[in-house]
Amino acid sequence: MMKSFVIFLVVAILAFTSVNVNVAAECPKICTLIYSPVCGQDATGRTTTFGSMCQYEAHNCNNPTRGWRILKTGECPDL
């Protein structure tokens, strides 16, 4: 009986910890509508203005192979 309880406890702890790890690894899904632009550039040199740092982070998280980085706060210059 005690052995079954210990096994159950270990499984429960492992399940709880893996759930927390997965939640932390998810990309941001909801950003506020407060406009605070940042200018980002991908690995090819293409620039994009993101509406906020949250939107930049969400985009970068969902597109990890693009290699986006922040160039500056504010909108990107028109070329």
UniProtKB/TrEMBL annotation:
List membrane-spanning regions. none
List the keywords (alphabetical). Answer: Protease inhibitor, Serine protease inhibitor, Signal
SMART domains per UniProt: KAZAL (SM00280)
- Per UniProt, residues of the Kazal-like domain are 21-78
Q: Does the record carry Signal as a key word? A: yes
Q: Which GO terms describe its molecular function?
A: serine-type endopeptidase inhibitor activity
Name this polypeptide is given: Kazal-type serine protease inhibitor domain
Look up and give the organism this protein is from. Answer: Popillia japonica (Japanese beetle)
Higher taxonomy:
Eukaryota, Metazoa, Ecdysozoa, Arthropoda, Hexapoda
